[in-house]
C-alpha cells in the first residue's frame, strides 16, 4: 500500500472483484514508508528497542492502512470493515518481531462476509496467548494473507506486489529473464528461500501444505482492467499437476542469495554431539542455518561448515567465540563474502545431468565452488560474491531459460 | 507528549517519581500533531469517515507513544511495559469517537507494578463488548488517567498539560489572572464544562465521585526539578474540605465558552411532551444541550430556548428543520453568535448577592444578557460574543480575583 492515492486504487480493484460476485477478504501491509518511519522513531530512542514494544509500535502501520482502505471502500459504496490482527484473532507464538501464526479464527470473518461486507485484516501482525501484539517479521503480510485464505478455504490467494510475477531469475541481473505463467509451489519454495524476494517463504509453505493457489500480481496495473486479463498478468503458484507442464523443461529458474556468510569449524573429534550442539546454539537465537556440510579429515576429525544470512553473521561469531572453550575443536574460520546460486525445477526429477551441466558451466567461467547442496528439485552452490551476477547470467543461458 | 525529545523528558520525570519509591502508572496521549495527522489521512479519503474505522485509526497515535515511552524508560534503566487500551482492558460502551469508560481491569496492571515495572497505558482509547476499538473523544486521555487511578485506588492522579495549573480565568483574556493552589472539584467541574480547557469534564467527574485528588501540572518544567517543588507548582483539584478554605472567598474563578449557539422555539402549545421531544431529537445525535429556559407567552403558548456548542449548530438546525412539520410550533429562531460567561465558587453557598453583583456589573457595561442559569456554585449568563472579553475582564475585577 503506497500513498492515499494507491489506497483508493486498491479500493477500486477490490470493489471490482467483489462486484463480480466474489466474497473478498483483503489483507494489507502498511503504507509505503510507514514501517520505516516507525522504526526510525524507535531508533531515535534506543539502538536496541525492546522487541515486545517494537511489535506494538510497528503494528500501528497496518492498523492505519486497514482503516483507510475500509473508508475508501465505503466512499465508493461498498460495505467494508477493518480488523487488527488481535481482533480476528490471528494467533501466534510469542517470538516478537519473528512470530509464527498458529491459527486464524474465521468466525468473525465469515459472519461479516455473510453480511455482504468486504473484510480487511491487518497483515504482518497477530497476538500471542498473553494478549501481546506480535509481528511476523518483514514480508509477513504475505504469510498473513495465506493463513487467512487457508482458514477460510479460499479459492485463491491473490498477492499484489511491486512486481508482476515470478521470473526465471532476477531481471536486474539477467535482462532477458522471462515471466513464468505458472510455477510449482515447490519451485517457489526454493526460490523464496534462495532470495527471489517475491513472496515470503512461509506464505508459500502454508499455501502448499493447504493447497491454496497463490497468484502473484502487480499492484501497479490499472485497477479497473478486465478480470480475466488481470488474472493472466501474473504468475500462478500452485501444486496442482494439471497446471504444470512437468515434462517440458528441467530447470524453471535461477535463484540467488547475495548476502550469505559461511562458518567452518575445523577439527571436531568424532563425536556426533558436537555438530548438533553448535547448530543448537545458533538456532536457539532464532538464526536460520541454511547449507550444511560435514567431511572427515585425514587425521580422523571432522570439518563442519554451515551458512547463515550475512545479517546474522556477527551474532553467530559472538555466540561461537563465547562458547569456544566449551567445545573441543581446533579452529573456527569464517567468510562473510559469499553468495548462493541455485538452479530450480520440478522437472529435474525426471532429468539427469543438471548438476554436472551446472558445475561444468561454472568451471568454464573459472568460478570456484565452496559448497554444494542438492535436493530433488534444486542444486545450490556457494561461491564468492564477486562472481554471483556472472554465475546467474551464464546459468540462465546454459539452461535456455529466456526461450523455454 | 510532543517530540521524541519530550518523550525522553517524560521518561526522566517518570523515573524520578518511581525512584522516590512510588509505584507509577503512566497514561499517555498521542505525540503532538499525530492525531491531526491521522485525521488528515482519513479526511483525504472521506469527509465523513466511518466512526468505527476512525477510532481504530486514531487509536494508533497513543499506541505509538506508549511504546516509545516504554523504550525511553528502559534505556535509562527502568523496567517498563506498555499496553493499548484493549489489552488492559479499558472497557467502554460502543459510542465510537465519544465512548464512555465502564470499567478498567486492574489485574494486569497490579501484577506488573508488583513486579517493579512502570506501566504505561494508552490514553483516550478502550474496547467495547464486541472487541471494537473505541476512543473517548478529544481530551479523553485525562479521563483515561483518572479511570486508571480510580481502578488502582491511586493516592493521586497527576495530569501534565501545557499549562501550569488552573487560573481564576483565562490569562489570555485577563492578564492578571491568578493561579489557584487548590480548587474544589465542583468548581473545577463547572470550569471544565464552561470552557476552561484544562481538564476534560468527565475526568473531573470521575475523580470527584471516587475522591481521587488530581494535580494539574505543566509538562514544560524541568523534569528533574525536586519532587516537592514540582508538586507545589500546579493546582490540586480535590474535594477534601481541609484543603479548601471555604469561608474566605465567594468566587474562585470566571469561566467562559466563546462558541455557543442559541435555539429558540416559539409558540409551543401547552403540552409537556414537546420540549422533551425536541431535546430528545437533539441528544439522540449525541449533541449536548447546555442552558435551557422555558417561559409562558401571553397567548398561553410556551417559548423554549436552549444552547448547544456552536460546532453542532447546523446539525441541530437540520434536525429541527427536518422535523418541523411534525412539531406543532409557530417558529424556530436561532443565534450562533453568543458566548457564555460564568462566575464559579463553592464559597457562593454561604454568600448571598453574587448574582446581583454580577448582573449589575454587566448592566453598567451595557452588556445585554440573553439567558441566565444558576446552580449552587455557579451563575452563567449568555451574552453576545462581541462582549465576551469585556465581561470576563470586568467580572474578574469586580470579584477581586487578582488579589484573593
Description:
By secondary structure, chain A is of the alpha/beta class. In chain A, strand 13 (292-296) and strand 14 form a beta hairpin. Chain A folds into two domains: 4-241, Carbamate kinase, CATH 3.40.1160; 253-398, VC0802-like (2-Layer Sandwich), CATH 3.30.2130. The radius of gyration of chain A is 23 Å and the shape is globular. In chain A, 35% of the residues lie in helices and 25% in strands. Chain A contains twelve helices and 17 strands. In chain A, helix 1 packs across helix 3, helix 2 (34-45) packs antiparallel against helix 3 (51-75) and helix 5 runs parallel beside helix 7 (201-209). Chain A starts with a helix and ends in a 6-residue tail after the last helix. A six-stranded antiparallel β-sheet of chain A has the order 13-14-12-15-17-16. The A-B interface holds A 4, 7-8, 38, 41-42, 44-46, 49-50, 52-54, 56-57, 59-60, 63-64, 66-68, 70-72, 74-75, 81-82, 84, 86-87, 131-133 and B 4, 7-8, 38, 41-42, 44-46, 49-50, 52-54, 56-57, 59-60, 63-64, 66-68, 70-72, 74-75, 81-82, 84, 86-87, 131-133.
Amino acid at each position: 500500500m503506497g500513498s492515499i492515492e494507491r489506497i483508493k486504487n486498491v479500493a477500486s480493484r477490490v470493489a471490482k472483484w467483489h462486484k463480480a460476485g466474489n466474497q473478498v477478504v483483503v489483507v494489507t501491509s502498511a503504507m509505503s514508508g510507514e514501517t520505516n518511519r516507525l522504526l526510525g522513531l524507535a531508533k531515535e530512542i534506543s539502538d536496541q528497542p525492546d522487541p515486545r514494544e517494537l511489535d506494538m509500535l510497528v503494528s500501528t502501520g497496518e492498523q492505519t492502512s486497514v482503516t483507510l482502505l475500509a473508508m475508501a471502500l465505503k466512499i465508493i459504496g461498498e460495505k467494508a470493515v477493518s480488523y487488527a490482527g488481535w481482533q480476528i484473532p490471528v494467533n501466534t507464538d510469542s517470538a516478537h518481531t519473528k512470530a509464527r501464526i498458529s491459527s486464524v479464527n474465521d468466525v468473525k470473518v465469515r459472519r461479516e462476509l455473510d453480511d455482504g461486507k468486504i473484510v480487511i485484516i491487518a497483515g504482518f501482525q497477530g497476538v500471542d496467548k498473553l494478549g501481546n501484539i506480535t509481528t511476523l517479521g518483514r514480508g509477513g503480510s504475505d504469510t498473513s494473507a495465506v493463513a487467512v485464505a487457508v482458514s477460510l478455504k479460499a479459492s485463491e490467494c491473490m498477492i499484489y506486489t511491486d512486481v508482476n510475477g515470478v521470473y526465471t531469475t532476477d531481471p536486474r541481473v539477467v535482462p532477458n529473464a522471462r515471466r513464468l505463467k505458472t510455477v510449482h509451489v515447490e519451485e517457489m519454495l526454493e526460490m523464496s528461500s534462495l532470495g527471489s524476494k517475491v513472496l515470503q517463504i512461509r506464505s508459500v509453505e502454508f499455501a502448499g501444505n493447504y493447497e491454496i493457489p497463490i497468484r502473484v500480481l502487480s499492484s501497479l496495473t490499472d485497477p479497473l482492467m478486465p478480470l480475466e486479463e488481470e488474472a493472466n498478468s501474473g504468475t500462478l503458484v500452485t501444486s496442482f499437476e494439471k497446471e504444470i507442464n512437468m515434462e517440458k523443461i528441467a530447470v524453471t529458474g535461477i535463484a540467488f542469495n547475495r548476502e550469505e556468510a559461511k562458518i567452518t569449524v575445523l577439527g571436531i573429534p568424532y563425536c556426533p554431539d558436537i555438530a548438533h550442539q553448535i547448530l543448537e546454539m545458533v538456532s536457539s537465537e532464532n538464526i536460520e542455518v541454511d547449507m550444511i556440510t560435514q567431511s572427515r579429515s585425514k587425521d580422523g576429525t571432522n570439518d563442519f561448515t554451515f551458512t547463515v544470512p550475512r545479517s546474522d553473521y556477527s551474532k553467530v561469531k559472538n555466540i561461537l567465540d563465547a562458547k569456544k572453550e566449551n567445545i573441543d575443536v581446533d579452529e573456527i574460520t569464517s567468510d562473510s563474502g559469499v553468495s548462493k546460486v541455485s538452479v530450480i525445477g520440478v522437472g529435474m526429477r525426471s532429468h539427469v545431468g543438471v548438476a554436472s551441466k551446472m558445475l561444468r558451466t561454472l568451471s568454464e567461467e573459472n568460478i570456484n565452488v565452496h559448497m554444494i547442496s542438492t535436493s530433488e528439485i534444486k542444486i545450490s552452490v556457494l561461491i564468492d560474491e564477486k562472481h554471483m551476477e556472472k554465475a546467474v547470467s551464464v546459468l540462465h543461458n546454459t539452461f535456455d531459460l529466456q526461450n523455454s
